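Sample intake sheet
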Amino acid sequence: MAEGKEEKFGMRTMRSAAQSSDSPSTMNLRPCRLAATMPRTSEDVENFLLELDRRFENDKGTYLVSVGEEKPPIAIRVVPPIVAVRVAIGPVPADADHQLKLFRRLLEYNATDLMHAAYGIDNETIVLSSALPLDNLDLNELDATLSDVDLALTRHVPRLHELATE
């Protein structure tokens, strides 16, 4: 347990740094309640999108976030206990040579450029996805994930399409 803190019956008791940690008789412990947070809901996600000034529509519980013309929308779905973020990039090429080049580049992007999302393959479609814990989701976390996806759609996707077709 960290010095200066003691856990007792679901409450945290703290002592000042100036107090001696050697002698229990000289400790002046005072209770302090741990902050309780309300569980997040899809309404919170919608409010975050509004606060981030993101254009979106709600399609039966899936938020489709617009990221510009000629770019696929980012789908955000609240499925407790997670918030799933996903965008379809395009089909997996049929021939092995194109696949090899493309898959290598996807792995390189996962390792070097993406912090909050990752490329994958689902039913012969290349996807970019992320999963965030709903219970403690905050505005900054959602913003960072959407920024990661924005970067990928702007910088990676044109190159990925080239690799899939050249």
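Comment: Confidence is low (pLDDT under 50) at residues 1-21, 32-36. Strands lie at 5-8, 11-14, 30-32, 56-59, 62-65, 74-79, 82-91, 118-122, 125-133.
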